[in-house]
Write a structure and sequence with these properties.
The chain has 32 helices and 31 strands. By secondary structure, it is of the alpha+beta class.
C-alpha cells in the first residue's frame, strides 16, 4: 500500500498546479493550499477507506480519512466512531446508543450507493437552502491538518480509559458527551491569544449547572443558534486556557457544518465558491480581531508613554535627548504642521469676516492653511510650499490665538528677528515692565501679529528611587515625582509624591511647600500633568507684519516699556539704523530743550503730516520711514513744533518743509472762526484731514495767486461803512441829505476825500468818504465790481495759515478752512471761483498738481443743499459719495468743490446730485407715509462701468430707508441710490437700486 502511495505521489507531483486543482474539483475537494498540500490530499483521498455513513460523511469529505472522528469539545478524545456510555441515566441511554450504532453499521453499505445521488442532489440542496428560514452563517471553514497516527493512537487510548472509568464509577444521570475530532497541531495565533473572559465564565457556569442537574440533554433543534454547546460532566470542567481557546475556535469553525448535518444525513458542503467566501469572511474576522488587539496594545503603550512623560525621563541624558528631539521637530523646515484648536479659537479665526485668518494668510503667502474638524477635534492644517513656510505659518496661527486670548506661547527654540523674509521683529521686554505692552491692542491698531514667546522649561529627569520604592509605587499605582491631588478634609490640593513607607503610606510634598504622610486612599493622580502657568507678559515680544506697521507696533511697545522703566529703550537700547540713505530706515532724534511736551501732544499729527512712523520716548523721538519722510519728521520735531507757541504760531516755514505745505489766506474777520476756542476748530480740521496747520506771523505774504491782482491805494478805496470799492464802481453820493447815483473816479484832492461823477449831469466833485456808499442791496458778495471790492478789502491784510501734509490732505484741509471763512465773509470765495480754485491749489495751475480742484455751483433746490450741509444723514451721504467716487467733496457756500483726478471729480459731481435728489424724495415720502415720488432717473446707468443695477419691488424699496442705506454705505464704501428706471422697461411696481462706486469689488458687497 505504501509503495502505491509513493508512486501515486510521484505522478501527481509532475502535474502542474492548475491540473492538481482540477483534480481536486473533480473529487469535490477545496483547492486552497500549496502544491505539496494538494498532492498529499489527493493521495489521501484516493487511498482512503470506504466513506463513513450518516453524519460523519460530511467530515470525511472535508478532512479526508479519519476526518469523521467525532469531536469532544471538553478535551476528551475517543476512538473513531466510539460512543461513550451514559453512566447516570442507566441502561436506557446506553441501550439507545447501542441501537443507533447498529443501525449506523447497517447503513454503512448503503451509503456507497448514495454518494452519486448526493452529488446530483447537491445543486438542489443549495437552491433549497437559499429559501429556508435558517440561513447558514458565513463562517470560514479552514481545512485542518490531517490527523496523524500519533494522535489516533493517543485518542484511542484515552477513549478506552474514559469508558473504563465510567463503568467503574457508574455515575448516575451523566450527560452524553459529544465525541470530537482531534484538535489541530497548531492553532491560529490570533485565536490562541484572543479569548473573551466573559464568554469563558458564562460557559463554565453553564457546565457547572449541567453537572449539578446531571441530566442528559438532547441535541438542540435546527433553529438553535448554538447547536454544539452541550452541557458536559462536572469532571471535565477543569480545562486549561489553551483548551478553551481551541474549543471556541472549533465551535465557530463547525457551526456551518452543524447546520448542514441538520438538513439531512449525507449532505455535502456547498460549492467551492461558498467555501472560499466563508474562508474570506473568517479571515476578515481574524484580521479585525488582530487589529483590535493591535489597537489595544498601542493604547496600552500610549498610556505607558504618558505615565513616563509625566514622571520624566530616566536620566539627564534622556532629558537632553528629548529636548533635542523637540527642537529638531520645531525647526524642521519641511514638516507639515497641525495646530489643535478649540471652539473659541475657531470663532476667533473665522469671526469678523475671517479678519484674523486673512491676516495670517497674508503674512504666510507660501503656506496653505485650512481650518477643519478632524477625528481629534478642530485643528489648523498647515502645508508649506517652500522650506520653512509651514513653521512660520504655525507661529502666525498660534501667535494670533494666544494674543487675542491674553496668553503666551512656549517654544523650545525662540524666534529670531527677520526669521522669515524680514517680516519678524523681536523685542526683549524686561520683567519690570510686565503688563505694559498689550499685544491684542497692537494687533488692533497696526494690523500685525504680536505675541510673547517664552522658552519651554527644561525637561528634568525623574527623581532617583530605590528598587523597593519603585515596587511599592507600582503596587499603589503611583510613582516618585508624580503630580497628584491629595485630599485634606473635604478638599483636594496639588502635590507631588516623595516616597513610600513600609506602613503602606505615601510621603507627599504640597504645592505651596511642606510635606505630609498620607494614606493612599486620599491620593489620586492629578488631572493635568503640569499645573497651569501664569502668562507673564514680558520677555521676548515677537511682532510679525509688513515693514511699516511692524515698526510702528515695535515703537509703540518701546514707548509703553519706557513709561514703566524710564530710559530702557530711549537711552539704553534704542533702535539701530541700518544706514540706508534712500530706503526705509530708522532714526533717533533728541528733542530740543524748548519742546515742553509739544511733540508728544502732536505725535499722531506729526506722523500723519510727515507720513513717517513717529514715537516720542521721554526726550527722544524714534522716526522710521523713507528718506523724505524722515527728513520731514525731523524738521517737525526739531524746529517747527517746539518753536510754535501755544496757539500754533510759526515764525517761518523750515526749508525742509516747503515742498509739503500749502498756504491759504484767512480774512482777519474769520480768524477766530477758523481757529476756534483754544484752537479747537483748527484741531478738528487737522484730525479730519490728517494734516498739521500753523499760523504765520501777521503781515506775512503769500505767493501770487492765479487771476488775482494785488490791491493798492490807487485801485481800491474805502467808502462809508468800511466797504471797499474800486475805481469805476457804481456808488451813491449824498447831496443835500439825499443819496443819488454816482461813479467813483478815484481819491480826491483833500485827505480822506473821494472824487465822483454824478450820473444826472456827469459833473465831477470831491466828497468826504463818509458821503459815498455802496448802493442799497449791493454788497456782501452780491455780484459785480462791488462784490470784488468787498473781497479786496477782506484780502488786503489777511492772516496766512500754512497747512502741512500730503497733497490730497492739504487740499482737503484748505477747502475746509475756505468753507469756514466763507461762512464769516459771504462771497469771499464763491464770488470768484477761479481764484478760489487757485487758492485751493496753493496758487498753482491744474497742470502743476496731482490732486486737481474744480468748483460747481449747486443747481437744484436749496432744500437739497441744506439737507447735505446740516442733516447728519446728509453729511453721511456726502461722505459716502466722496468715498465711492474716490475724490474730495466740500461745500463752500452754495458751491461744491471737488478734488482729485478729472474722472474722479466728474463722478463725484454726478454722485452728489443723484444722492441729494434720491434721499430727499425718500425723506418726503416717509413723512407723507406713502411711496416715494419718482424723481431720480439715471439714463445711462446700464452703460456705466461704475454702476451695478438691482431691480427691486416697491415693498423692498420701502424697507430700504435712508438710515439703512447709510449703514450699508459705511460698511461697504459705495453709494446706494434708488431711481425710477432711467427710461428702461421695468415691471409695474419695480424700482432700480443703483450701487455706485469706482471699485467693482466694493460694489459686490451690498448684493
Amino acid at each position: 500500500m505504501e509503495r502505491k502511495k509513493e508512486a501515486r505521489r510521484a505522478e501527481l507531483k509532475k502535474l502542474a498546479l492548475p491540473d492538481l486543482k482540477q483534480k481536486m474539483k473533480d473529487r469535490d475537494l477545496t483547492t486552497f493550499g500549496s502544491k505539496v498540500e494538494l498532492v498529499e490530499r489527493l493521495v489521501a483521498e484516493e487511498f482512503k477507506p470506504a466513506a463513513p455513513a450518516g453524519e460523519d460523511a460530511i467530515f470525511s469529505d472535508i478532512f479526508g480519512p479519519g476526518g469523521g472522528d467525532q469531536i469532544d469539545l471538553d478535551g476528551g478524545a475517543g476512538a473513531p466512531g466510539a460512543e461513550a456510555k451514559a453512566a447516570g441515566a442507566g441502561g436506557e441511554v446506553e441501550k439507545k446508543h447501542k441501537k443507533e450504532k447498529k443501525e449506523g453499521k447497517a447503513k454503512e453499505g448503503k451509503d456507497d450507493g448514495k454518494e452519486k445521488k448526493a452529488g446530483k442532489e447537491h445543486k438542489e440542496r443549495k437552491e433549497h437552502k437559499e429559501h429556508t428560514a435558517h440561513k447558514e452563517p458565513k463562517v470560514q471553514l479552514a481545512e485542518p491538518p490531517a490527523p496523524t497516527q500519533h494522535h489516533k493512537e493517543k485518542k484511542d487510548k484515552k477513549d478506552k480509559k474514559d469508558k473504563k472509568d465510567k463503568k467503574e464509577k457508574g455515575v448516575p444521570g451523566a450527560p452524553v458527551p459529544v465525541a470530537a475530532a482531534p484538535l489541530p497541531a497548531e492553532l491560529p495565533e490570533a485565536k490562541r491569544d484572543k479569548k473573551d473572559k466573559r464568554e469563558k465564565k458564562d460557559k463554565k457556569d453553564k457546565k457547572e449547572k449541567a453537572g449539578k442537574e446531571a441530566v442528559a440533554e438532547k441535541r438542540p433543534p435546527p433553529q438553535d443558534p448554538d447547536p454544539i454547546l452541550i452541557p458536559q460532566p462536572a469532571a471535565k470542567q477543569a480545562k486549561t486556557d489553551a483548551q478553551d481557546d481551541a474549543e471556541s475556535f472549533w465551535k465557530d469553525l463547525f457551526i456551518g457544518v452543524e447546520f448542514q448535518k441538520q438538513e439531512g444525513a449525507g449532505a455535502k458542503l456547498d460549492s467551492e465558491g461558498d467555501l472560499e467566501a466563508r474562508r474570506r469572511s473568517a479571515a476578515a474576522a481574524v484580521q479585525a480581531e488582530a487589529e483590535a488587539a493591535r489597537q489595544k496594545a498601542e493604547a496600552a503603550a500610549a498610556e505607558a508613554r504618558r505615565r513616563e512623560e509625566e514622571l520624566g525621563p530616566a536620566n539627564e541624558a534622556a532629558a537632553e535627548a528629548l529636548m533635542a528631539e523637540e527642537a529638531a521637530m520645531e525647526q524642521d523646515p519641511h514638516r507639515e504642521r497641525r495646530v489643535p484648536l478649540t471652539i473659541r479659537h475657531v470663532e476667533i479665526l473665522r469671526g469678523e469676516g475671517k479678519r484674523w485668518l486673512r491676516l495670517v494668510e497674508t503674512l504666510s503667502p507660501d503656506a496653505t492653511i485650512s481650518v477643519a474638524q478632524g477625528d481629534r477635534g478642530w485643528e489648523a492644517k498647515i502645508v508649506g510650499t517652500q522650506p520653512g513656510a509651514a513653521r512660520h505659518a504655525e507661529l502666525c496661527v498660534s501667535g494670533t490665538i494666544a494674543s487675542i486670548t491674553d496668553e503666551t506661547l512656549e517654544m523650545r527654540v525662540l524666534p529670531e528677528a527677520s526669521d522669515r523674509d524680514g517680516i519678524v521683529e523681536v523685542l526683549e521686554v524686561p520683567a519690570e515692565a510686565e503688563g505694559a505692552v498689550r499685544t491684542a491692542k497692537l494687533m488692533e491698531d497696526f494690523g500685525v501679529i504680536a505675541v510673547f514667546v517664552h522658552e519651554k522649561p527644561r525637561i528634568r529627569p525623574r527623581p532617583a528611587a530605590a528598587a523597593e520604592q519603585i515596587e511599592l509605587g507600582r503596587l499603589l499605582g503611583l510613582a516618585i515625582g508624580q503630580a497628584v491631588e491629595v485630599r485634606y478634609g473635604e478638599d483636594w490640593f496639588h502635590g507631588k509624591v516623595l516616597g513610600f513607607t513600609d506602613r503602606g503610606t505615601v510621603n507627599v510634598e504640597w504645592l505651596g511647600g511642606g510635606e505630609a504622610e498620607m494614606s493612599p486612599v486620599d491620593i489620586r493622580a492629578a488631572a493635568v500633568a503640569q499645573l497651569p502657568k501664569l502668562n507673564a507678559m514680558s520677555g521676548r515680544l515677537v511682532v510679525i507684519g509688513e515693514l511699516r506697521p511692524r515698526k510702528a507696533a515695535t515703537f509703540r511697545a518701546m514707548a509703553a516699556v519706557d513709561s514703566r522703566v524710564p530710559g530702557h529703550f530711549a537711552e539704553n537700547f534704542p533702535p539701530q539704523p541700518v544706514g540706508s540713505l534712500f530706503g526705509f530706515d530708522v532714526a533717533v532724534v533728541p528733542l530740543p530743550p524748548q519742546d515742553g511736551g509739544a511733540c508728544a501732544g502732536l505725535r499722531a499729527k506729526i506722523a500723519a503730516a510727515s507720513e513717517a512712523v513717529v514715537e516720542v520716548l521721554s526726550k527722544h523721538v524714534f522716526i522710521a520711514g523713507e528718506a523724505d519722510e524722515r527728513r520731514r519728521a525731523h524738521a517737525f520735531v526739531s524746529k517747527l513744533v517746539p518753536e510754535a507757541g501755544p496757539f500754533g504760531d510759526a515764525a517761518a516755514i523750515p526749508d525742509e518743509l516747503v515742498d509739503c505745505c500749502s498756504q491759504v489766506r484767512v480774512p482777519a474777520a474769520a480768524v477766530s472762526a477758523v481757529s476756534g476756542v483754544a484752537r479747537a476748530n483748527l484741531s478738528r480740521i487737522e484730525d479730519e484731514t490728517a494734516c498739521l496747520a500753523f499760523w504765520l506771523p501777521p503781515g506775512a505774504k503769500v505767493t501770487q495767486r492765479e487771476g488775482h491782482v494785488e490791491a493798492d491805494g490807487e485801485t481800491t478805496l474805502q467808502v462809508a461803512g468800511g466797504s471797499v470799492c474800486s475805481v469805476g464802481d457804481v456808488v451813491e453820493a449824498n447831496w443835500a441829505g439825499s443819496w443819488h447815483p454816482a461813479k467813483l473816479l478815484g481819491p480826491g484832492d483833500g485827505e480822506g476825500s473821494l472824487r465822483i461823477a454824478w450820473d444826472f449831469d456827469e459833473s465831477e466833485q470831491d466828497l468826504e468818504a463818509s458821503y459815498v456808499r455802496l448802493p442799497e442791496g449791493v454788497g456782501g458778495g452780491s455780484s459785480g465790481s462791488n462784490a470784488q471790492g468787498n473781497r479786496s478789502a477782506w484780502l488786503r491784510s489777511p492772516r496766512v495759515l500754512v497747512v502741512f501734509g500730503s497733497e490730497r490732505a492739504r487740499v482737503s484741509g484748505v477747502l475746509q478752512v475756505m468753507a469756514t471763512s466763507e461762512a464769516s465773509c459771504p462771497g469771499l470765495w464763491t464770488g470768484a471761483l477761479e481764484e478760489a480754485e487757485s487758492e485751493a491749489r496753493d496758487g498753482k495751475t491744474e497742470d502743476e498738481v496731482v490732486c486737481g480742484v474744480e468748483a460747481h455751483k449747486h443747481e437744484g433746490p436749496i432744500v437739497e443743499l441744506e439737507w447735505l450741509k446740516s442733516s447728519p444723514m446728509g453729511q453721511q451721504a456726502l461722505r459716502s459719495a466722496a468715498r465711492a467716487a474716490g475724490c474730495l467733496i466740500h461745500i463752500v457756500g452754495q458751491v461744491y468743490f471737488f478734488g482729485g483726478f478729472p474722472i474722479q471729480r466728474a463722478r463725484g459731481n454726478e454722485y452728489i446730485r443723484w444722492v441729494s435728489k434720491s434721499r430727499t424724495q425718500q425723506a418726503i415720502a416717509h413723512l407723507r407715509g406713502g411711496p416715494s415720488a419718482r424723481g431720480l432717473s439715471v439714463v445711462d446707468a446700464d452703460m456705466r462701468d461704475d454702476v451695478t443695477i438691482l431691480v427691486l419691488r416697491e415693498a423692498q424699496v420701502a424697507v430700504l430707508r435712508p438710515e439703512k442705506l447709510s449703514a450699508l454705505e459705511r460698511e461697504t464704501g459705495v453709494l446706494l441710490v434708488i431711481d425710477d428706471g432711467g427710461g428702461s422697461a421695468l415691471e409695474a411696481g419695480s424700482r432700480r437700486l443703483l450701487i455706485c462706486g469706482e471699485s467693482e469689488e466694493r460694489r459686490r458687497g451690498p448684493r
